[in-house]
Amino acid sequence: MKCWLVVNGFLNSKKFEEIYGFLCRSGKKLGIDVEVKTGADIFCGVNEGFSSFSLPDFVLFWDKDAYTAKRLEEAGLRLFNSAASVELCDNKCLTAMALRGKVKTPETFIAPKTFEGVGFSNLTFLDKAAKKLGYPMVVKEAYGSFGKQVYLVRNRAEAETLVKSFGAKDFLMQKFVETSCGRDVRINVVGEKVVSAMYRHNENDFRSNVTNGGKAENYLPTEEQKTAAIAAAKALGLDFCGVDVLFGEGGEPVIAEVNSNPHFKSTFDCTGIDMSEQILSYVKEQLK
What we know:
The protein is α+β, with helices and mostly antiparallel strands. The chain has three domains: 2-80, Rossmann fold (3-Layer(aba) Sandwich), CATH 3.40.50.20; 88-103 and 179-274 and 281-286, D-amino Acid Aminotransferase, Chain A, domain 1; 108-176, ATP-grasp fold, A domain (Dna Ligase, domain 1, 2-Layer Sandwich), CATH 3.30.1490. Helix content is 32%, strand content 25%. It has nine helices and 13 strands. It has helices at residues 14-29, 66-74, 83-90, 92-99, 124-133, 156-165, 223-235, 265-271, 275-286, and strands at residues 2-7, 33-38, 58-61, 79-80, 108-110, 137-141, 150-153, 171-175, 183-190, 193-201, 215-218, 240-247, 253-259. The strands form three sheets. Strands 11-10-9-12-13 form a five-stranded antiparallel β-sheet, sandwiched between helices. A four-stranded parallel β-sheet has the order 2-1-3-4. Helix 2 (66-74) packs antiparallel against helix 3 and helix 3 packs across helix 4 (92-99). The longest helix is centred in the N-terminal third of the chain and has 16 residues, at 14-29. The termini are close together.
């Protein structure tokens, strides 16, 4: 069985290479020939398509390039995760919309659209959101990873300065879940089953991401947390994912974000559980 592991060719760092290595080794163990392909490796004309390539049996899509994902599906390939799911997870605004009514999420407002060279010249929408959400308020760029495009603004002045720095970027505003400040649970889901989890905490930042200096511990999620994580995965149509779960009032699970291509090396270091083997075992079973 042949697999393309499609990755972003511009993210050249050790932490990404480690993930690709895990998947390749697990593939070999399971009798799957995993070949790493960057977007540039399979670059081709829209009209020509992938006719000049020897196509694999399936694709593990570890990029966020929705255009390429959709074109691969149009060529008849099965993608894990699907193009639609990758697109929903990559854009936090779309994620919030897809999760509405399915799981508990922070109260959210999506900023109105603007354009390059125009920016956000009228901020009345910001005041409307603040009236409902209050300060401090969480502001997230629609696109971003590892918590780097997530901000906490404590007053109107900070919010205005931040929003004006965005230019024409899409973003959303969310209620700050104070009961989960600097802590959350990353729950990894494969095929509607929880396969591992870790508790992340950071005493110096409201974000818990390990990349931002947070620490992680092996964690046994509650049944409520597991149910919420699986429901979020199902709502987004995901085969596998990493779900970030906040601690709401009384410990109620609140879904913060869902990652279609989770960086599971941190979870492996913390728990010893290799998510790559579970992902590929699941895929192999699906393709029987």
